[in-house]
Amino acid sequence: MEFCRGRKVDDLEFLKERGISEVKVAKILAEVFAEMIFVHGFLHGDLHPGNILVSPEGENGFSVVLLDFGICKQLNEDFRLKYCELWEALLRTDGILRSLTSKLGAPLRVRLLAYAEYALYGLSLKADSKSDSAIEVVLFRFKIGLRYIQLRLLFGILGIVSWLENIKHTSTRRFKDFLASAGFVVRSLYRPLLTA
């Protein structure tokens, strides 16, 4: 057993006091969960804020500590690979991606991209079998890398589209507010003339 320093992950005051970015902590957590499942085929069955600490020590100014591995499950290799393929298929479906990213914003895009990266990396591990030649392994990993680049580009484009839609929505709202204010000013200026 080991003593680990840190505070619960949902202690936002602590994060603020230490200058630790909540977004960076969330990104690290998404990457940890994704790597745990997609790459190592391991599932922690009791993750909640009390079992996740943020320590002020670490490479990036903090580290994330997972506690209480009493309820864990090792996924069999076939299930792990099929789960990676499922996530790859889900993330490649344009309509689902557009819907998810537009509704949930940038932080979710970060999480989905982490899932995509580790799902594809998890798929690349099956290329290590002894029956594959070195050339087949290199080609397979190259294809996986290309798929990841395609997903990153797609997320980038969807991010730009979402940003443009937000600008359009904000501009439209501001223009309507401006027209309403202008109408009020015009009515206020001409009301004395009309009542005279």
Automatic annotation (TrEMBL):
<protein>
    <recommendedName>
        <fullName>Protein kinase domain-containing protein</fullName>
    </recommendedName>
</protein>
<dbReference type="InterPro" id="IPR011009">
    <property type="entry name" value="Kinase-like_dom_sf"/>
</dbReference>
<dbReference type="Pfam" id="PF03109">
    <property type="entry name" value="ABC1"/>
</dbReference>
<dbReference type="InterPro" id="IPR000719">
    <property type="entry name" value="Prot_kinase_dom"/>
</dbReference>
<feature type="domain" description="Protein kinase">
    <location>
        <begin position="1"/>
        <end position="196"/>
    </location>
</feature>
<dbReference type="InterPro" id="IPR004147">
    <property type="entry name" value="ABC1_dom"/>
</dbReference>
<dbReference type="InterPro" id="IPR051130">
    <property type="entry name" value="Mito_struct-func_regulator"/>
</dbReference>
<dbReference type="GO" id="GO:0005524">
    <property type="term" value="F:ATP binding"/>
</dbReference>
<dbReference type="GO" id="GO:0004672">
    <property type="term" value="F:protein kinase activity"/>
</dbReference>
